[in-house]
Amino acid sequence: MENKQDSWEYLLQGEKIKSKHKNAITITKANGINYIDNEGNSYLDMKSGLFNVSLGHCNTELADAAYKQTVSLDFVPNIEGFNNATTVKLAKTLVELAVEEGLTSTASVYFTNGGSEAVELAYAMALKYFELKGMKSKKKIIALHNSYHGATFIPASLNTYNNSYGWQRIQKSRHEMFMHADVPHENYIEQAVMRIGESVGAAAARLLEEMIVKEGPENIAMFIVEPIQGNGCVVLPHDDYFPLVREICNKYKILFVADEIMTFAKTGAWFAMSHCQTDGFPDMITIAKSLGAGVAPIAALLISSDIKATCFDNISHPWMPDITTAGNPVCCAVALKVIEIIQREKYLTKSVSMGHTFMEILRRTLQGLPIIKEIRGKGLLAGIDFNTNIAKEVEKKLLHEEKVIVKGNSSEHTITLCMPFVATEEDMNRTAQALHKVLSSFKHAFA
Ligand SMILES: Cc1ncc(COP(=O)(O)O)c(C=O)c1O
User: 149 CB under 6 A from ligand 1?
Assistant: First the structure.
């Protein structure tokens, strides 16, 4: 691997990095919040891998958990009449965590290897549910503008940025199967559509209802939403939005799917949806990323008791997709250890104060830079919205000049940061100072 060109020859993902940044960086080691490259440079990983390495890199407890499981029971299919204690234990634990946080309708779990697969499965589950309920025309999906739901066919069809795959690729235009509702945030909703005296959350919910009525509720299967848009730059919805949306989904018999792939265990709670405190919802939840902490490829779809009863109970041959490695015991052992560590170290509570500290540091350090439109965050997640499309430049300069890693988003005017639980105040200060230096170097920073 000495010659970087060699790595580009064989690894296609490396090719993508090369064309974007010219110099692909070969990482040889990682520890805590740091990466080390093959030239000995150290990088501050304020993206936590890809928003998944929440415990910090190279946690030896996770290595032990994976090792112990591998040498006692490495693999057994979770289909065809088999299961195993580790996978069952993780499923039970996840349901209990959801119920404890007030998401009381959560009943059971279906594991997948990654987030995109879990979103695909949510849609497949919705189709099955309505078929069994005798509502076969319900097929369309509504997502929000500015959202990201994954890279395989159904999620890619829902994304509003980087649409090189999905329905739009085949049809050359967005298919009416996939619709997009307004984002419940003042920076993203068009002011012209708001009524006098109406809150942003209420306006976004009203517009969603109008869309449903226009399309015909009999055609709509599910509404999928990130409780906090992650790739879209930590867009926090207004408090009144989700309770109104739950009512709308109930009224029109539409399944409410919370995509918590990004937010799981990052916002001071296991589930960001629990901050809404509306008993019983959602109908389905997808989780991934922090669940496997970057070590185990694991994701899950959590379904409600109503969906479980309809699709699985008293059905002699319930529909079940067979995914070979989904829910394999080694990944589940790692995920159980992740949950144990987060509980033992009280990381969820700690992440609330970490988030407040980081917001305070960012706002104080970056104040007076008019290039910044808004700084937002919750728990481990932070987002900066710029007045111009400099996100990719900022990402590159931070990486190459300051050795700080953040994510420049597809929207091009926002960056998203995600610190691991092990980040210190010093790491936060270093990030804010690096950002200040990079942003000040833009000619129009003070314009
Ligand atoms: C909200 C959300 N949904 C789905 C996905 C897709 O997950 P994966 O990359 O594991 O397929 C992501 C990944 O960033 C995500 O942030």
Answer: yes
pTM greater than 0.90 (yes/no): yes
* CATH no. for 65-344: 3.40.640.10
- Could you name the CATH architecture of 22-51+346-446? Alpha-Beta Complex (3.90)
Alpha-carbon torsion (377, 378, 379, 380), positive or negative: negative
Phi, psi values for residue 350, rounded to 5°: -60, -35
Q: Could you tell me if 226 and 211 are in contact, meaning their C-beta atoms sit under 8 angstroms apart?
A: no
Q: Which atom of ligand 1 is nearest to the CA of 50?
A: 14
- Residues of the chain within CATH 3.90.1150.10 domain(s) are 22-51+346-446
Per-residue pLDDT at 2 exceeds 60: no
Res. 1 pLDDT band, cuts 50 70 90: very low
> What pLDDT is stored for residue 240 in this prediction?
92
The tokens describing 132, both together, are 């069994």
Q: Is the C-beta atom of 292 inside 6 A of ligand 1? A: no
% residues pLDDT > 70 (the chain): 92
Strands 284-287 and 299-304: antiparallel
